[in-house]
Design goal:
Structural class: alpha+beta
Number of helices: 2
Number of strands: 6
Shape: globular
Distance between the termini: 57 Å
Number of domains: 1
Helix content: 10-25%
Radius of gyration: 17 Å
Oligomer: single chain
Length: 115
């Protein structure tokens, strides 16, 4: 198995740590995409490893799932189903649309109607 890693840094200084496990044909067998804010606090983890050995860890979208932030009141065993963010492109797109773009001052500034 081959492993490739990368780090994507967004405009708000949050980071997505990418770890992909590739098979011999070069396709992704499983991945770990871990998103942290600018102060290195975990925001979400998008994973695709299978939990066949322990059904307590499975979600309805097995093997795709999202881990909640570590400081949440949920336990490590808790995971959310991941219906639509199952590849790097859709995960990055979701982060940009819902987290990075709204923090840009130009989008939050009020419009007074003057040019």
């Amino acid at each position: 198995m081959y492993i490739q890693r990368a780090t994507i840094t967004f405009n708000d200084f949050s980071k997505l740590y990418v770890t992909e496990y590739l098979n011999k044909s070069g396709t992704i067998d499983k991945y770990y995409y871990d998103w942290e804010d600018a102060s290195s606090r975990l925001k979400a983890q998008y994973h695709s490893e299978s939990h066949e050995q322990d059904r307590r860890y499975q979600t309805i979208t097995e093997p795709y799932h999202i881990h909640p932030p570590k400081d949440s009141i949920l336990s490590n065993m808790d995971r959310f189903p991941n219906y639509s963010h199952q590849d790097l492109y859709s995960i990055v797109e979701g982060i940009v649309i819902f987290a990075v773009i709204p923090t840009r001052p130009t989008l939050n500034a009020s419009f007074d109607g003057q040019d």
